[in-house]
Specification:
85% of the residues lie in helices and 0% in strands. The chain has 4 helices and no strands. The longest helix has 38 residues. The model has no long low-confidence stretch (mean pLDDT 90).
Length: 107
């Protein structure tokens, strides 16, 4: 019966740590920023499709069969990968360091 009390004490130590609040705050702001950027990119594309389909139907060049919408769609997919990479880079750096600081101070 002592184990649940020990786990709860550890959880309380972590959640009451000042760096925990810093970690949660920074990570939340960053995640929301990246999410909003991706949503703006994606829904911007959808709005262009809905209200100006001729814009995306323009051919890349005079003799081309590929419209400008294809490379723009590919860029949107690449943007998702880039934003994911940015998150992973920051998570493996700053966010992991804050997590490690919390773990070290509790030991």
């Amino acid at each position: 019966m002592n184990q649940p009390n020990l786990n709860q004490a550890l959880v309380d130590q972590v959640t009451n740590h000042p760096k925990y609040y810093e970690l949660v705050s920074k990570r939340s702001k960053f995640v929301w920023t990246l999410s909003i950027i991706m949503l703006l990119i994606y829904y911007g594309f959808i709005l262009v499709i809905a209200f100006s389909p001729a814009t995306l139907a323009m051919k890349i060049s005079a003799g081309s069969v590929i419209s400008i919408g294809i490379p723009i769609g590919v860029l949107i997919i690449l943007a998702a990968f880039v934003l994911t990479g940015i998150y992973v880079y920051r998570a493996n750096g700053e966010f992991d360091q804050l997590s490690n600081d919390i773990k070290e101070s509790i030991k």
